[in-house]
Amino acid sequence: MSTGDAVPFRGVPDPASSRLEADALGTVSVPSSVYWGVHTARAAENFPLTDRPVRHELVRALAQVKLACARANAELGFLAPAEAGAIADACLEVIEGGLRDQFPVDALQGGAGTSANMNVNEVVANRAEELLGGRPGEHVRIDPLRHVNLHQSTNDVFPTAVRIAALQLLKGLEQAIAGLQSAFQDKEREFRNVLKVGRTQLQDAVPVTLGQECSAWAECLSRDRWRVFKCAERLRVVNLGGTAVGTGMTAPRAYIFLVVEKLREVTGLGLARAENLMDATQNVDPLVEVSGILKAHAVNLFKIASDMRLLSSGPAAGLGELRLPAMQAGSSIMPGKVNPVICEAVCQAALRAMADDHAVTQAAFLGQLELNAFMPLLADALLGSMDLLTRADALLADRCVHGMEADVEACSRHLERSLVGATALVPALGYDLAGEIAAQARREGRGVREVVLERGLMGEDAVDRLLSAEAMTALGHR
């Protein structure tokens, strides 16, 4: 492509419905009906990768940054009141969910997020131009770079927006984890008297209650909830005002000190300017730390959903101790088959979140010198995991845990046929003798209680007391 050649936007062949916009590389034909411009058009052509646009949470956060910058520039006299007002109104429109179809840039893009930043600059500028009586593309009153991007760089705007979007998504994730934890706590109370076989390495071990199993799931979710709450602290430090590499070049000192204050007002978040803006521009290890917290939750979520799936197996030819809600027909060939589809979907969501953590890790350590060029991948993976895990938590709670039931008969049947009661005899009879009793019971197909009484090793009251549900599931023995 030679400089000056008009490049039609893909899928818009009619020049009569287009306008020409220019950049340093030449001119590009842009549909007249859109608010984005030449930079967005080139990005849409250059990055046909995932067929997924930048996440709307990130677009919203970028608009919040632009709003804060406009207010800071207006207060310091760098933007006229009319200019700042129109930019603010356009930003608020995006923040409130408007113009959602005006952000087509692919989630994965070169340039460390420049295309996403310019997409927002162009949409806000053209909408502001329109609000002031002009037409999109004129840039007579509002220019994407001279006004909307004033005293900014992609390198401080994009990382700041990622942190804002992450903080806002974390609130929803914490609430979803709390909801799932509460659902298991309800089942802990409901199943507190359902005695069953506990298993280690998939082999019969000792008696437990189904309520105790639910309590363990609830407790690990409690840790996840606390970790997610605390990791917000890692995201509150931003590099806005640092411009290109953290030195603040081209930005007035007064603006650098004011803009984060304006951003706190816009977002309602307890944000702080990084003490070392160069460090905050080139290093993203706090995002890796947050991603690790998400991975820990994904690990717990997978384990829980997998356990539920196993406990519901069969039901006739498996464990069948849990009955999960029937969500849909399970087979196109086997009539009546119902699969644990919610658990399976949640497991896949957890696996994706674990994979996203690996992407975040690699994107972080592949950054070089003063900037990380792979911020778009990191942002997409980190924010995507937060949203996905939030949905998975809510799905598991609403469509599975709340409606699951205990199969008390199956739990009792397995317990009676197992030899796990032999372990309860160890404090009274010793390990070796309890082992002999278990071996005899297995060999003769009889119960542990029956063998103990036949051999006259203890009285009926004593053995019943040791083999009671209360004794076998209590914390220690007397």
Task: Describe the structure in your own words.
By secondary structure, this protein is mostly helical. It has 3 domains: 30-150, Fumarase/aspartase (N-terminal domain) (Fumarase C, Chain B, domain 1, Orthogonal Bundle); 156-409, Up-down Bundle (Fumarase C, Chain A, domain 2); 419-473, Ribonucleotide Reductase Protein R1, domain 1 (Orthogonal Bundle), CATH 1.10.40.30. Helices cover 58% and strands 8% of the residues. The protein contains 19 helices and 9 strands. The protein has a 3-stranded mixed β-sheet with strand order 1-3-2, covered by helices on one side. A two-stranded antiparallel sheet has the order 4-5. The protein has a two-stranded parallel ribbon with strand order 6-7. Helix 4 (114-131) crosses helix 6 (154-190), helix 10 (285-311) runs antiparallel to helix 11 (341-365) and helix 16 packs across helix 17 (448-454). The longest helix is centred in the middle third of the chain and has 37 residues, at 154-190. Residues 1-15 have low confidence and may be disordered.
